[in-house]
Design goal:
Blueprint (H helix, E strand, L loop, with lengths): L1 E5 L6 H11 L4 E3 L2 H7 L10 H17 L4 E4 L2 H10 L8 H12 L4 E5 L15 H17 L8 E4 L3 H13 L2
Parallel strand pairs: 1-3, 1-4, 2-3, 4-5
Helix pairs in contact: 1-7, 2-3, 3-4, 3-5, 4-6
């Protein structure tokens, strides 16, 4: 199966992927586009610009086009759409131009696991983190994936609880297929 783990920053995605990697040893893990681009020398603005998020969106689409069969993706194109729609310069992002490519890429996924911010929040944030952006992206991601206003047509499993509980929910979902 091809599974993407999605959500805002500091929600527990990477921790869940680590847990799932241990439980699904035959699966390949694909690092999130930010880290891939950074390793290649891409210079991100601080905070990231619309162009930076579009570069990550393009890489995420390419990753889905090239990935193996049993794979865990850290993020998918919907993550970057969430960030772009929450960005202060969101008017510079042309979602309609990207949607055909995003829909085609998402068709290659069997499941998107949505890791949202829980109440109370399980993740402690440093004072330097932009909590408003994190909450806005979480809201956008839930809207995009659970309400599906752009007819993305993806199967979504929203998980909650500890990383072990989240992994168990994913495994139970996979077992039910």
């Amino acid at each position: 199966m091809r599974i993407a783990v999605s959500g805002t920053h500091r929600a527990g995605k990477s921790t869940l992927i680590d847990e799932l990697s241990d439980l699904l040893p035959a699966y390949v893990t694909v690092e999130e586009p930010y880290h891939q681009l950074e390793e290649e020398g891409y210079d991100f603005a601080a905070p990231p610009s619309v162009e930076d998020f579009e570069a990550q969106l393009a890489r995420s689409i390419a990753d889905l086009d090239e990935g193996p069969r049993d794979v865990l993706f850290d993020r998918c194109p919907v993550d970057f759409i969430g960030y772009l729609l929450a960005h202060e310069d969101r008017d510079a992002f042309d979602l309609d131009a990207w949607l055909p490519r995003v829909r085609n890429a998402l068709r290659t996924l069997d499941l998107i696991v949505l890791v949202g911010i829980e109440q109370p929040d399980r993740i402690a944030l440093s004072s330097s983190e932009d909590e408003a952006l994190r909450l806005s992206v979480d809201e956008k991601m839930k809207e995009l994936l659970l309400e599906d206003p752009y007819a993305l047509g993806v199967v979504v499993l929203e998980v909650e609880g500890s990383s072990r509980a989240r992994a168990k929910q994913v495994l139970e979902h996979l077992g039910s297929l």
